[in-house]
Every structure is written in structure tokens, then in C-alpha cells.
């Protein structure tokens, strides 16, 4: 895979402090995870121009086989998997709904923007090309992408051409075009009555999974037992394991090993620690077991991986 996006709740800023909005262009070749499980406080609009993906949101699976637009509401757990050996492209706009707020307390502020910000109003899940709202929303999405790219091109022509990257902007004119396009998307969704009120009984299972993912992130360097994870959400071990696998697609221990290997790859790339030191740093107490797990997930040894990364850099 070409990209290793961040896992769990994203703490990195989307956009700038004064303008929390950014675009992300992701490219990959072959089957596998394109975007790992994570969530964030911002809303997200995803545009798939084609390809074959599986988008998972809050334990629901959505096959993507053609051009379409998906919406991710703030706080929703989601990931993207590619399911063919072809080239895959996915574009996203991530924004804090608060950037669309008005000082004047008009109807849009009262009945649309404020409910979206408070989570009382949800974006539609998906819009397909046959829906009359698709073309105007896609055009507005493309205008947002163009505004970011134009702003980046003015500052750095090289950055503007990158894929698997994000773009932000501090340019006033670009921000105005972006905000107007986002408002146009909201207006189109409202015109077609595509927003839905939040259900009163939220799925507590998703919050349980998010709690466990955060626990793994904070404690992967230590020994973790299934009982430790189940205790975090007050569930028995058998039910917890079924819940976790349904949500994430693999067992808790498989996920922990995958997360640890991801951390070892980061340390091999970014630090001068020895392989033994990295093994211990990432929660493996047995070097032989670590080497087997590393080869299982990467197809190579830690030393070979570090050397290949150094040559590539």
C-alpha cells in the first residue's frame, strides 16, 4: 500500500486553526487497507470516481463499485478497504461544520448549521449518480478541490501535484470559494430533504469499540490480555471478542499485533534504535516471536525493511 493513515481518533488538525478544512487525495495499487479504522470530530465528504472498495462505517459495510459520494458524520468510526488489484483513487474533504456558522441567527443557522454542529442532524450516507442531487454536489466538491489546489499552486507548484497528500489554505479568496461550495452542498442536501434527525438510541457498541481502540493505542507497549479489553467496556470476554471482530474485521489480538507492527515500522523509519530495542518498545518480550510477526505482516525482516526505507528516502 502507498499510504499509512493515522489510526483511531485523529488528533492532527484538519486544515488550519483559523480555517479547519482540508482535502485529502489517496492513491493505492492492489488489495488491502486504504484508510485504517479511525474517527474525528469533523464531517467528511468522500468522492469515489470508480474502482472497487468496501467502506465500513459504524459496523456497517458499504460496497463501492462505481462513482459515488459518501458522507461521514462527526465521531463515526470508519475505514476503507480496496478489493481489486487495480489503481484506486479516493478524494475527501474534511471540515469542521463550525466554519459555516453565521453571526446572524437566521433560519439556516437555527434549523441547519446548529443542529449539524450539535449532532442532532445527520448527513445522508450516500448519493449515487442517478440522484438529482448528485451532479450539483459533485460539481461543488470539485470546486472545493480546485480552490485548494489553486491556492497550493500559487505557493508551491510541486506540492499541488502530489497525491497521497493533504492540502490546506490560508488564502482569503480560496477560503471564500470553499465555504460557498460547502454551503451550496448543504443547500442542495436540504432542498432534497436528505438530512435526517439523529436517532435517540445511539449504538453504544460503537462507543465501546472506540474505547477499546483508544486503550490499545495507549497501552500497546505493555502486555494486553483479552480480559483487560473486555473490562474497559464491562463486557464478558466471549461477547466482547464477537463484537470487536464484527466491528473491526479481525480478532482483538490480531488487531493488537497489527498495531504493534505498524509502530515498529515507524520506529525503524524514524529512529536509530536497534531491532531488539524496538521489539521491547512495541510490546514484544520475545525477539523470535517479534521477527515472525514482522515477517508475517511485511514479508521481510526489520533490518531489511529499515535498509529498503533508507534507500528509498
Notable features of this structure?
11 helices; 20% strand; 5-stranded mixed beta sheet; disordered N terminus; 313 residues
Q: Specify the helix fraction band.
A: 40-55%
Assigned CATH superfamily of the largest domain: Jelly Rolls
Shape summary: globular
Strand order of the largest sheet: 11-7-4-9-2-12
The CATH architecture of the largest domain would be Sandwich
What profile does the largest beta sheet have?
6 strands, antiparallel
Q: What are the segments in which pLDDT stays under 50 over at least 5 consecutive residues?
A: 1-7, 156-163
What is the alpha-carbon Rg in Å? 21 Å
Estimated structural class: alpha+beta
Order of helices and strands: EEEEEEEEEHEEHHEHEHHHHHHH
Q: Could you walk me through the main structural features you see in this protein, from its secondary elements to its overall organization?
A:
The chain is α+β, with helices and mostly antiparallel strands and 313 residues long. It folds into two domains: 8-197, Jelly Rolls; 204-312, Arc Repressor Mutant, subunit A. It is built from eleven helices and 13 strands. The strands form three sheets. The chain has a six-stranded antiparallel beta sheet, with helices on one face. A five-stranded mixed beta sheet has the order 1-3-8-5-6. α2 (134-155) runs antiparallel to α4 and α8 crosses α11 (302-312). The longest helix has 22 residues, at 134-155. The radius of gyration is 21 Å and the shape is globular. The two termini are 17 Å apart. The model is unreliable at 1-7 and 156-163 (pLDDT under 50).
Amino acid at each position: 500500500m502507498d499510504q499509512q493513515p493515522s489510526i483511531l481518533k485523529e488528533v492532527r488538525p484538519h486544515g488550519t486553526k483559523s480555517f479547519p478544512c482540508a482535502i485529502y487525495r489517496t492513491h493505492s495499487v492492489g488489495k488491502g487497507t486504504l484508510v485504517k479504522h479511525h474517527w474525528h470530530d469533523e464531517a467528511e465528504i468522500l468522492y469515489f470516481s470508480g474502482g472497487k472498495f468496501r467502506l465500513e462505517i459504524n459496523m456497517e459495510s458499504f460496497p463501492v463499485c462505481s462513482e459515488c459520494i459518501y458522507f461521514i458524520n462527526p465521531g463515526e468510526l470508519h475505514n476503507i478497504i480496496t478489493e481489486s488489484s487495480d489503481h484506486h483513487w479516493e478524494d475527501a474533504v474534511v471540515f469542521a461544520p463550525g466554519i459555516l456558522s453565521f453571526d446572524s441567527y437566521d433560519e439556516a443557522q437555527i434549523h441547519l448549521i446548529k443542529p449539524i454542529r450539535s449532532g442532532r442532524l445527520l448527513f445522508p450516507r450516500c448519493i449515487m449518480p442517478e440522484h438529482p442531487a448528485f451532479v450539483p454536489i459533485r460539481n461543488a466538491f470539485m470546486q472545493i478541490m480546485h480552490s485548494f489546489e489553486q491556492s497550493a499552486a500559487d505557493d508551491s507548484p510541486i506540492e499541488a501535484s502530489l497525491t497521497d497528500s493533504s492540502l490546506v489554505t490560508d488564502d482569503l479568496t480560496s477560503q471564500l470559494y470553499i465555504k460557498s461550495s460547502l454551503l451550496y452542498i448543504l443547500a442542495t442536501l436540504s432542498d432534497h430533504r436528505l438530512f435526517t434527525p439523529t436517532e435517540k438510541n445511539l449504538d453504544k457498541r460503537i462507543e465501546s469499540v472506540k474505547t477499546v481502540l483508544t486503550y490499545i493505542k495507549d497501552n500497546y507497549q505493555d502486555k494486553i490480555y483479552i480480559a483487560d479489553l473486555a473490562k474497559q467496556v464491562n463486557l464478558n470476554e466471549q461477547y466482547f471478542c464477537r463484537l470487536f471482530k464484527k466491528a473491526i474485521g479481525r480478532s482483538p489480538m490480531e488487531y493488537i499485533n497489527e498495531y504493534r507492527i505498524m509502530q515498529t515500522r515507524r520506529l525503524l523509519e524514524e529512529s536509530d534504535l536497534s531491532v531488539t530495542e524496538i521489539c521491547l518498545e512495541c510490546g514484544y518480550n520475545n525477539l523470535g516471536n517479534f521477527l515472525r510477526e514482522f515477517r508475517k505482516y511485511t514479508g521481510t525482516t526489520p533490518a531489511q525493511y529499515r535498509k529498503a526505507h533508507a534507500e528509498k528516502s
